[in-house]
Amino acid sequence: MTPLRVRFGTIHPGMPGGIYVTEKPFEDALAAGGEVEVRSIPFGRRFPDESRAGRIARRAADLAGFVLTLLRERPDLVHLNSAFDRRALVRDVGYATLARLLGQRVFFKFHGSDPTVLESGSRFWRWMAAATIRGAAAIGVLSTEERDWFVAHGFPAGKFHVVKNAVDWRRFDGAERRAPSPPRLLFIARMVPTKGLLDVLRALALLRGAGRDVTLLCVGDGPERPAAEALTRELGLGGAVVFTGFLPEAETRRHYLEASALVFPTRREGFSMTIFQSLAAGLPVITTRLRAAADHLREPDHCLWVEPARPDRLAERVAWLLDHPEVAEAMSHNGRALARGFGVETVAAEYLALYRRLCGSA
Q1: What 3-state class would DSSP assign to 326?
Q2: Which of 53, 171, 249, 263 has its CA 20 to 30 A from that of 134?
């Protein structure tokens, strides 16, 4: 069978977030299989501090390059890794419109979606969303919740496909977990308000106030870090909390293996690589029942659920898990098994089948 010619637009490795971490191994696996000719195209911001003028000039250059690629190569499909939010729509509507005019199939993978885009009632953003979705051959979303939400807002169900992120579970395969003493909780994410770090700190204060010797390791950086450090001092947690700052992905491995539980009371999420990396590492998870986590995880087999913005309930769930080591041990075993279903080769095969259907060569 003739290899499909697919062009990928993926976030630059200089940008924060987990998109590059999951997409690059996935693209490599597709290429290694021999059924897809993989090439990258420039797409998206290059660096977090890119100036407005630089961003506008670079975006114009990327769009021009996109058109030239379509005209010269006529790929079977273009796969663009994006998100459904206002910033991304301003960029993506141009790609979708040009693709439609040139008769090019484009697949958008939304790494998360912001419900306020449509729920605000703005006719402008409704038009931007409709133009982007209309120009796409298909949209990949990371949970049934998101697919159902788009359909509930009047978009055609057939346009949306629930897809997965790839998880490199082999980086933890055979690794031995080390039970820390005292117990150490792990928070690992970009530090923004929706991730729930301040709730984690308040829960830790409740636990320590109840006489539990529990510590917290915070891995990552972001705009909420100063507020988190200030709250740590205010709650008198200085000796119990460590902030590592941003760490390259390779350096996070030992932290997954040396923690007692992941605490991640996020308020908005797509397919959290933090959660699925924790599963692969055999790390028990306490998180909110949202989107991809709600689709794939079950309590108490893989996790404990907690309501967002409820540090009291989070403290209770942590205490319960620490008091039930047999449940934590079962979670560790079950999580590793679940993560194997999201392996790079498995997910690449699922995307290949979707690409072939979209291109009419299934």
Answers
A1: helix
A2: 53
